[in-house]
Records
---
Amino acid sequence: MPAIKSRHCDLMVIGSGMAGMAAALFAARRGIKTVQVGVTGEINFASGLLDLLGVHPVDEGVCRADPWKAIRQLVTDEPDHPYARLSSAQIEQALQACIDFLDAAGLSYRIGARQNSRVITPTGTLKTTYAVPQSMYAGVEALAARQATLLVDFHGLKGFSARQIIETLGTRWPGLRRVRLDFPEMRGELYTEQAARKLDTEPIRRKLVAAIRPHLGSVKAVGFPAILGLYRTGEVLADLEEALGLPVFEIPTMVPTVTGLRLREAFERQLPKMGVQAFYQQRVLEVTIRSDGGFRFMVGHPFGVVAVTAPKAILASGRFFGKGLQAERHGIRETIFDLPVVQPAERRQWHRRDFLHSAGHPVNRAGLAIDQHFRPVDERQQVLYRNLYAAGSILAHQDWIRQKCGSGLAIATAFGAVRAAASQIG
């Protein structure tokens, strides 16, 4: 058996979803020697939109135009919500730092006067969000002005239907038209990642423009499924706008998404350059609590294991999909440290009888309770490990899906957890 390699760091970040990536980013910006481990999960399915807070109260389904005012109301109404552990200034600082990082990595974002925007979904409904990828923002403007717009669809592409979007939105946006084309040099079933890689090349873009031009008529904008390049989205967008002479925008597709791959690629490409030692697509197999309160993690996969020692750790392993939480017959458990999970007393209380209940299901608010320093606590509010912090969707007392706060919550709580850990790192 090969010898187990050893590594030492100041901070271990467990998780490679948005919260884990953001935590590694904020730690690297502070010059903290960081190791990150995690199997990429939720981020692959991200729409690319950075929600802050779109709905409050959830049971009333109130969409909020001003997310900052909504957050102030939220923390008053729900003092255990993770946002209540941060000031509005800290939340904004965290989000802006992440946006600046993504912009430098080639993924630019737009924010409409510190207000939420309305973005078209692949089913034709409208989503309330805060920071919108530059590649989608012309769609926000076209929707707001109800401009005559052509939606481009492709034969063989699943998870996107311009026809369905028009059937859903047509009465509110009568200027919508659609065209369905063959994707250049492709036949049969078309996958979003495959199409995006093709559009990274100029010859394919030239052929696509030639196919679209006869259908433009008097439209003022052109919408595409989110396939406008994987690594060169800004270049692809600018090239299509120049060639068509019109604003161009993307519409998110059903999962898995190119927008999620772009985010993952940006973080995985840039974080190691900032000094983060990453073990992507690997898991924490075992953890030992040291006598000094630090940790020893066994990290790896069946083909190799590395022992990582760290005085501090941030748990950002996600919920069920990310395998941070696991639902079992008699309850929900946290999978790495076996921390107590805030959850309904009995499994039959996890879900309400009505699947579409306006307040959501109690299981969606299950997770880890934390103190003011983002350290997990037990039912008596006692800190479990003084050097362990938690961030992201694994936290209790929030329903990020219905509240439309997923990315904002992940980024802000990662900022708070790193800030708390950094205050104890020499």
---
Amino acid sequence: MIIAFRRLLQPLLAVAFGLAVGLLITAIAGENPLHVLGVLAKSAFGSRYDFGMTLFYATPLILTGLAVAIPFNAGLFNIGAEGQLAFGALAAAAVGILVPDLPGKFLEPALAIIAAGLAGALWGAIPGWLRARRGSHEVINTIMLNFVAAGLCSWVTLYLLRNTETQNPETASVGPDYLISKLAIFDGAPVSSALFLALFVAVVAAFFLKRTTLGYELRAVGQSEAAARSAGIDSGKIRIYAMALGGLMAGLVGVGEVLGNAGKFKMGFSPDYGFIGIAVALLGRNRPGGIVAAALLFGALHKGAADLDMATENVTRDLSLILQALVILSVSADGLWTWLKRQKKGAPVG
């Protein structure tokens, strides 16, 4: 119990330290840190609409954080969530456009959700297969596939599924039965039932990693490939599965965007959710519960900083990026905390 408390306390203290340093920077810039903190808190949580927007920003970050964490547990670094989520969103939109009517009230969104997940999984499995069977590094492969995904999504959007009623680079609208409900409690904020989908996926991911044979094999490969092979685990197959699962979770980002918000696929809809997901996974220590908390923090910082342009004279919304970076640096400084503990105990370092 004490060990678990210490593991929880360290990232909390690191987050507090990172925020404190960020607020100190605002003081150097000529702003009252307490005023800046108040603006951040009020903008992120001051009303039901504000909190709804925080949850809206956090929802895709939960999924992209998991998209990074699952492969990471297998010893892989998935930088391709941006391409995977684009493919998932486009697949959801394509199903909603090309299959406009199905019998049954819930079949349409269910079909689109399955299409989004499968499209993301397919795009994630490609670098997994290349790593497992050809030895190509997944970092290079996923970076390149992000550009390939952007090009393919652009071509499909502009030439196959284009919305002919506007000059904007977007597809036609999905059928009305494909849309999922927004949460009315948040006074018009675009947060939808996709939030519950993201939380459900996080719960399933936690169960998968801790309670299933495949999850155990995945973690075993990540901790020691040689030991996993000696135990009869096919590390190549596990890597393919891990990247496919990561892609599946990234692909589900399209559910909230296409079915819960825009009703169509819009090119460039993601403000780098896939790359921010790397930071979310790092902050959450690649654990589903920690990722949910980290995504909520990043969502709050993003929403909270939106009002800084109007409420302060010397600080802009870009402060959110600085705060995110400082928090990540603080949390990831495991070596520094270990060094400080050894110095305190007088133990030799090295």
